Amino acid sequence: MFNNHAVHANRHSIGFKILHKKRSLRSQLVDHGESGYIDFLQACIASGIDHHDELIEEVLDVVGPNVESYVEALMVRYDGAFWRKGDDGIYSLIPVHIQDLR
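-> structure tokens emitted (102 positions)
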């Protein structure tokens, strides 16, 4: 039987650093709420992660599977505002002009 107490993991190892960063990213995204998710999705699309399934996968990789329906709803709600979904499931960002923000 495996005994967790017998293992003396180095808390400064790369594994612990990655785990800490992942938890930090999750907290940052969740703490910013809807605007955080929108910004993250826009960053993904701008970075070339633009297929519907890939976008969902990226968010779930950071936050976990419990937000999938929430993210799906955001993607539908803001289609036409921040991005446009093509018939092929590929998203593209909608350009924002400075005069539109005034």
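The helical segments are 14-31, 33-46, 52-63, 68-77.
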